[in-house]
């Protein structure tokens, strides 16, 4: 029921702010130890691990029957499946490469799903002090003020975020890169106003939510990159789709989000799509 959602949100927000202090402190220091995970472009720092620990410990204490899917727990080999149980989906630092390079576009992402549906989302950039949040049915906010998507309907009037494909080469092979570059070319030919790639899926998404950019499309993601931002985008009026135009699926490792359905459908039609195995399957 909705009083529960308020409580879940408040506890998560307080912990996210504490995590933000860790990120901020580390960001201001000259260097942190960087480890690589699946490849040389897949980074993790001690701060990612510390923030995830803090969030899971705090939320686990407050809500002992809730479940967790966390980026760093998954990287450490923990199996995860999305069930109907209340599940916190956490990315302690989305934009780890930005964090390592001291580019101030990073976000702590804390999302909650109930019956597999994202219902609470917090995307917090502790460097710029931008806190995006939403509870299902109550609107989307940035630092307490309501936000809304843009009303742009045509690609040739849009600024869009895409990934340059670097992460996705891993596991899919070199064909992926050709496809990413070809898709890039097709949007240019279609007359897109501008491309951006902020290096954090969550920041790309909340920038759609606040209407700064008109759409975002990416392949090869994980649920923790997007779960929190999904609620914020939906509450800000965004259309979320699978890039193919099918219904959005949190575990499908891809996303297309736009301010209007018309723009989402145009972008879907322009792109050549790539399929991934769903994550979090038994
Ligand atoms: C990454 C960022 C990036 C996206 C990658 C993600 P991380 O998340 O969201 O924008 O292109 O696919 O893995 O590793 O920094 O949490």
From TrEMBL:
It is an enzyme of class 3 (hydrolase). GO terms for molecular function: inositol monophosphate 1-phosphatase activity; metal ion binding. Pathway: Polyol metabolism; myo-inositol biosynthesis; myo-inositol from D-glucose 6-phosphate: step 2/2. Its cofactor is Mg(2+). It catalyses: a myo-inositol phosphate + H2O = myo-inositol + phosphate. It comes from the Eukaryota. Its EC number is 3.1.3.25. GO terms for biological process: inositol biosynthetic process; phosphatidylinositol phosphate biosynthetic process; signal transduction. InterPro entries: IMPase (IPR033942), Inositol_monoP_metal-BS (IPR020583), Inositol_monoPase_Li-sen (IPR020552), Inositol_monophosphatase-like (IPR000760), Inositol_monophosphatase_CS (IPR020550). Mg(2+) binds at residues 71, 91, 93-94, 225. Keywords: Hydrolase, Magnesium, Metal-binding. Belongs to the inositol monophosphatase superfamily. This is Inositol-1-monophosphatase. It comes from Panagrellus redivivus. The lineage of its organism: Eukaryota, Metazoa, Ecdysozoa, Nematoda, Chromadorea.
